[in-house]
Amino acid sequence: MDAQNNNKKRVAFAALGLALVVAPMAATLSPAYARSAMADPAFEQVWDRTDKPIEERMAARSWTWGPEPFYTAYEPYTEGPGGQHLVTYFDKSRMEINNPAGDRNAQWYVTNGLLVVDMIGGRIQTGNNSFTPAPAATIPVAGDASSVGAPTYAALAKVASLKGDNRAPNRIGQNIREGLGRNGNVGIVDSLAGFAKYGVYESTLGHNIPDVFWSFLNQKGTIYKDGRYAEDTIVDWLFAMGYPITEPYWISIKVGNEDRWVLMQAFQRRILTYSPYNPEGWKVEMANVGRAYFDWRYKQVGQATPVPVVVASISISPASGESGTQVTVFGKNFPAHAAVNIAVEKPEANYSRGIATVAAGADGSFSAKINLPADIADLGKINITATANGGSIKAFQTFTPTKVSYDPAITVSPGEFVVVNGTVRVKGTGFPAGLGVRIGLYAADGKMEWLTSAKADSNGNFDINMAIGNRTVGKQYTVVATGDKGTKATSRGKLTVINQPTVQVTPASGPAGVNVTFKGAKWLPNSQVVLGLRAANRTTEAWLPNPIATDAAGNFSVTMFIDKAYAGAGEVRLIASEARSGVRVEGVYRVTGQPPAPPPPPTPTPTGRIVPSGLPMTVSSYSLDNAPATYSVRGEGFKAGQSVAISIFSVDGGVNAAVASAVVGADGKFQASFESTGARWWGRADLGVRAVTADGKQSSVRYLPLTSMVKTDSRTNTYTIRGFNYPSNVQVQAVLKITGESEKVIGTAVVAANGTVVFNASLPRIPDENRNDVEIRITNQPYLVTMDF
Questions:
Q1: What does pTM read for this prediction?
Q2: What gap in Å lies between CA 151 and CA 168, rounded to an integer?
Q3: How far is the C-alpha of 748 from the C-alpha of 488, rounded, in Å?
Q4: Which among 149, 274, 666, 766 could disulfide-bond with 263, CB atoms 3.0 to 4.6 Å apart, if both were Cys?
Q5: With the C-alpha atoms ordered 599, 604, 686, 680, is the resulting torsion angle positive or negative?
Q6: Over the stretch 203-229, which tens digit does the pLDDT of each residue have?
Q7: For residues 68 and 23, is the Cβ–Cβ distance under 8 A?
Q8: Are 371 and 384 in contact, with CB atoms under 8 Å apart?
């Protein structure tokens, strides 16, 4: 950053009395922690879901709670037993159980308090509807305590919605330019405007959530649940955060005596920060609200610190072994002289075995030797538990059985047919690590022939190609893989040997821009064959969207158009591929001579867009659940019997791909369809659909409208519709069509001069069994987009 620009940024934020120093925030993968036990298993379960993957290095991201609890006690709470509730403080928040008699499986059995609201509003919640007044917290909302430029919780009162006030307008899509000073004054920081935008408007309290925070709150990743790792949404943001109570603001903080700018937003329960220069996984972090609240309540306000709860815990030795192993269980901090029940559990396997009951000593400790049951061998990791006081006190440790039960399996692809002298791919799973495996074919007559071998990797897997050799057509085999240690696996179905299919291109050579006949023989009867083309000097393949069917003898014949784009290719490879057998065969067309006269070039507008021209043609698209769109093209007024080549092109020539072909009917009309070929189309405003007859004398050009409809707010069922490459300055309507009901317009917008359009539409809640479409229509234009939800 040069000095001149840096000075401009200082001046731009001078109204807040802050200086700009943009520096990368250092962050590294958190180390593994020896975490202390928790006061209630429900606390453990909530922590495990998000933070156990971080502790065990299964995920690289910022903490949701923190590495471990730092204080556990009973605090006053009017509705709790004896006027108290159990709380545990973590860096990021505080867990609490307000109703111990409630449903322990319910999501809100464990809650995290409205700590941010209390510190801003100057109150300490002591019951569902009871509070103790206190001075608002003069603690920086983020960074070190020496962050003299950072606003305090007390300062946030100027901008926070605590009583239905300070609502903000919907600013979705705008850059975030506002900064917040130490005393809660709002200013403009244009130098940081490009780092984040307002992404979602949360209307409950009236605040915008930044795109970077919304992505964080809805991200999927590795979680731990029911004793195993899985991929799922990491947090329920409303449960963890509450509603936003301020707008997002850029603030100046110190971390390790280093100045930096971060984006901050206060929610009812937590505070989020975003540092653009942090590594991925740590750009968005939760501020240390739990630490701040504890210091405020028990140091600034001066309330008496409650007596900490001593948590019972156990350790075991050894921590792994075979079933039947004798394990010593050591316990501490149990109630004096309590009866402690020792058991082996695996809840997700519905497994629970009581082992022994021992008595804790006067100091709450015990030591017991137990023999583990023999039937744990196939369960994987299990928990050894110790419970007292009717189950209200529970501690556990994990034991890992060392005996492994192997369940080998193989998959074969293609799994139904293989050509003479062909190859199949054999993948194995569940074999002992490092095991040598023989693989071969077993015939119906009982003959076994070993053809190749593989070695299982450290995970018990292998992946190998096996050539079957010159075998009799029609004969069937089972693929077998076997090794020592009693491991063996066979394929589920029979593998049938078939002829090697052939293809022929007629004529075998000629100019580009003409039709050729592509014939196939000896293919599977009544099967689907997908066709494509590839220039011999390129790797890109253009596949036709619709497969063709072979006849009862396994033959097919189809006309394919050699686009003029292949004029300089030398050779064009015509490809036929059949999924059931995995067979792929190519024919060759040599490109010679001059192609027919080209169609009239498209006329670009001054902004580089095409101008629709030529004979009448309509373009419409359809997509299911935002799957790749299927485009339908219909033309009229063309000469009967003519072959028509359909392609997608861009004005700059970067896109020029044949996508379909058709033959004009006796009525002068044709129809063809194709699918979107991927991301290289998305967002372009200069695309066209072109239909040209084989002789080049008739043509039509139209826009290729690109449309998406993505849910952006699950609570209100709101979708954002984005379109590119539409006719300029026309009105579009989003129309909801539900089977058996009248159409309903749910959104409108006007297309910009560059062909783009963005608007929101809210759908009513529709039962799953109802079929419903959303159509995006352009009045009096040959374009229609249909989304099936």
A1: 0.47
A2: 19
A3: 63
A4: 274
A5: positive
A6: 999 999 999 999 999 999 999 987 788
A7: no
A8: no
Look at residues 181, 537, 566, 227 and name the one whose alpha carbon lies nearest to residue 398: 227
Question: Rounded to whole angstroms, what are the CA distances from 107 to 243, 443, 497, 698?
Answer: 17, 56, 56, 66
Give the position of tokens 């590594």: 279
Pick the residue with more confidence: 135 or 148?
135
DSSP state of 137: P
Which bin fits 440, alpha (ψ -120 to 50), beta or left (φ > 0)?
Answer: beta
Q: Which residue in the block uniquely carries the two structure tokens 């009917």?
A: 665
**Whole-number Å distance between alpha carbons of 270 and 284:** 13
Residue with tokens 């429900």: 42
The CA distance from 402 to 381, in Å, is: 9
**Number of helical (H) and strand (E) elements in the chain, helices listed first:** 6, 57
Please say whether the beta carbons of 495 and 477 come within 8 A. yes
CA-nearest of 288, 360, 328, 393 to 63 is 288
pLDDT band for position 1 (cuts 50, 70, 90): very low
* 252, 623, 640, 729 from 689: Cα distances, Å: 52, 18, 21, 20
Query: How far apart (Å, rounded) are the C-alpha atoms in residues 721 and 719?
Result: 6
Residue 332 β-bridge partners:
313
Q: Pick from 296, 306, 287, 384: which is nearest to 341 by CA?
A: 384
Q: Comparing C-alpha atoms, which of 619, 646, 643 is closest to residue 545? A: 646
φ and ψ at residue 132, rounded to 5 degrees: -110, 125
Query: Is the omega angle on the peptide bond into residue 414 within 30 degrees of 0, that is, cis?
Result: yes
Q: Is the dihedral of CA 518, 523, 526, 528 positive or negative?
A: negative
Kind plus residue range of the DSSP H or E element containing 618: strand 617-624
Mean pLDDT of the chain: 85
Residue 7 confidence (pLDDT): 34
Rg (CA), the chain: 34
What is the pairing mode between strands 320-321 and 393-401?
parallel
- CA 179/CA 160 separation, integer angstroms: 14
**Digit-coded pLDDT (tens) for 54-89:** 988 899 999 999 999 999 999 999 999 999 999 999
Residue 79 phi, psi dihedral angles, 5° rounding: -85, -5
How far is 745 from 560, CA to CA, in rounded Å? 42
Closest-CA residue to 8 (of 143, 193, 160, 163): 193
Please tell me the chain's helix, strand, coil percentages from 3-state DSSP, rounded to the nearest 5.
10, 45, 45
Distance separating alpha carbons of residues 724 and 751, to the nearest angstrom: 9
What was the pLDDT predicted at 2? 36
What is the structure's pLDDT at 66?
95
Which residues, 6 or more positions from 579, have their beta carbon under 8 angstroms from its beta carbon?
414, 528, 530
Lowest model confidence (mean pLDDT) among 88-97, 258-267, 286-295, 344-353: 344-353
Q: How confident is residue 290, by pLDDT bands cut at 50, 70 and 90?
A: very high
Where do runs of H (alpha helix) occur along 181-308? 211-217, 237-241, 289-295
C-alpha 106/C-alpha 121 separation (Å) is 29
Q: Rounded to an integer, what distance in angstroms lies between the CA atom of residue 413 and that of residue 417?
A: 9
Instruction: Check pLDDT > 50 for residue 705.
Output: yes
- In the DSSP assignment, the letter for residue 91 is S
Q: How many CB atoms lie within 10 A of CB 380?
A: 15
Q: Provide the CA 724 distance to its chain's centre, in angstroms.
A: 24
How does strand 409-413 pair with strand 366-371? unpaired
- CB under 8 Å to 4, separation ≥6 — which residues? none
Q: What is the DSSP string of 116-135?
A: HHHHHHTEEE-SSS-EEE-P
Residue labelled with tokens 């037993």: 81
